[in-house]
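Table S2 (text version). Query chain:
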Amino acid sequence: MKLPENTNAYLWGAAIGAIALAVVGFGWGGWVTGGTSMKTAAAAASDAKVAALAPICADRFRAQGDSAAKIAELAKASSWDRGNVVEKSGFAMMPGSKTTDSDVARACAEILANPPIPKT
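Corresponding structure-token output:
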């Protein structure tokens, strides 16, 4: 079997084209590997969980009897320690869970210490 004369040029062109396609696709085309997509999905799930549970934690914290004093105490704490204050209060532990989530506690503390200003 005899190959056409330009076979070598065709093979080199196909190889260079494949490499260029991969560079463009992964560099600028938005392609990602399976591992990167799993990390991105895990981060998005964690962010969604915190966004859903932090307001619940804040409402539970505000519902306690001496909430005004506790929120004032929380506001006086350093920004680094506010999440720990909420964790120790137990309000960052969701029903059915055995542990508190530190990310939820930090987001809850941020909501409590810096309430949103209503727009008029």
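Notes on Table S2: The mean pLDDT is 88. The two ends are 83 Å apart (CA to CA).
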